[in-house]
Amino acid sequence: MHEVKERREDMKKNLSKKESRWGMLFVAPQIIGLIFFVLVPLASALYLCFCEWDFTSSPVWVGLKNFEAVFIFDSDMFFKTLENTAIFILGVIPLTMFLALGLALLANQKLKFLSFYKSALFMPMVTSSVAVAMVWYWLFAPDMGLINYLIGKLGLEGPGWLSDPRWSRVAIILMTAWLKTGYYFIVFLAGLKAVPVVYYEAAKIDGASGWQRFRNITLPQISPVTFFVFVMLVIDVFNMFSEAYVLTRGGPMYSTYTLIMYIYTQAMTYFNLGKASVASLILILFAGSISALQFYLSKRWVNYDA
Description:
Elements: H1 2-48, E1 51-52, E2 60-61, H2 65-73, H3 75-107, H4 114-122, H5 129-140, H6 146-153, H7 165-193, H8 197-205, H9 210-221, H10 223-238, H11 242-247, H12 259-269, H13 273-301
Helix pairs in contact: 2-3, 2-13, 3-7, 3-10, 4-7, 7-10, 10-13, 12-13
């Protein structure tokens, strides 16, 4: 009897070892990708923050010189990028979420050709952002742009969308919101489809108005989706590059110069990998801090109950 128990224990151990080997085999690609494409580049960037390197020679340790160059000698330009990024966050995120949720609420009704609407709205997301920016460049053109042409038909003078620092940010916000709305429209629509219909039926029986149903049922039920969209949009705004680069090259007067553009310019134009690494570190810290704050605050308003 004792031998039988020992054999069973040995079989369990061997089975556990086999399961562990197969488990490690399945997660190995993810672990390897995390090490070589995330941790190693992150460690290299952290090391380069304290070095001078121009791609050709070996990195030279310079201590805090790169931090001084970014925060002191190049402070006006660097803090301008942070200001622009903050403005884009405050402009792009609310506008995109409002448009995406509004379109999702409309599409959640019983509409004909719903598949066509979803495909049409999602189309910008599968289109090259460079091509999209070129189309919007012609829309915003001061002389022959369609937007100013339509404004002129109303007897008004159109603004200098790409030449006025005040309007250039508005142009970037409008284009980016249009570009991102399609994807998050699909996300919101999926969240709305998951809300149980019985909640709305019970609310109608109780005499709840449309606004009351939206506020007390729809918003709480899609709060996890709203949280996901908000986090992803923050990451999208921090990573804005091609939209502003193609449309305005960061101008006029650096009014649309983003943090990613600053990193790109330092690395690929001036070959100053040290300053680019410092700016990249700041980008990671800002994006990580905002994401952590979002997750902390989400405990107060995100409802995961079914």
